[in-house]
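Changelog excerpt

This revision adds worked examples to the README so contributors can see how folded entries look when concatenated. The first example is reproduced verbatim below.
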Amino acid sequence: MSIVYGPLKPADAARCAELEAQLFPGDDPWPERAFLAELSAKHIRYVAARDGDKLVGYAGIARLGRKKPYEYEIHTIGVDPAYQGRGIGKRMLTDLLEPVGDGAVFLEVRTDNVPAIKLYESFGFVNVGLRRRYYRVSGADAYTMRREAPSPARQ
């Protein structure tokens, strides 16, 4: 397996929507137009993982606020089920967090998505709250997780 990482492109939106339908079937998966809107937004950045010409993963983060220190919110991370467990999500999360600098990062994750929770915890995210029925279609709950900005001594 030779996975190549780089920016997600508008031409990838249909494949992202296809993966969303596989990964989040009961939780209102994002359609192609949602990915196109995300990719055209000024302060949102997406990364992609590709196996040859095949998109096998995507991840996005948004910068919030107008003044430093900014906060960030991870919007989504998805990996093709056939490629899960190979470190692709970890690498994409690393790429998303690298330019964040001194900003805190937030995300929501289903309370029953243990692999994702463990991944986020390995990056220093902690559970800071519960959002009941966050996923409207399924009614599933989500944890809100936060990663504090690294202290100057840790950078």
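The second example, added in the same revision:
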Amino acid sequence: MLYSPHVLLAEDEDLVAMVVSEVLESEGFRVTTTHNGLQAVEADAADPADLLLTDMRMPVMNGEALIRILRQRRPELPIVVTTGFSEHIPDEEPGRLVVLRKPYSLSALVPVITALLSDRRGLAS
């Protein structure tokens, strides 16, 4: 059986979450969709993701708090941040964190995720 990288998607807009999930699944990723940071923390504890794809503005727990909690548990976790806003955006970290400004092209998303996962595998070997 082929390995499918696991992407944890934290996105509060239902339509965006559905479209992004469908695109990623069509590219062979396994996707767990959550609608706020707290759900994402719980989902990652139950089934650790290979990569976090998160919005910054969400109810219950925002992306900034989500990133902080997951990075405490797993500092090496690759993260893609999507946002249409500029406040409280984390600095990009080569090989670990990429920021995509909304609206972003879905065609750009898969190469970004693939590159982050490749960098992570390269570090692990």
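Reviewer comment on example two: The chain has four helices and five strands. The helical segments are 14-26, 37-46, 63-73, 106-124.
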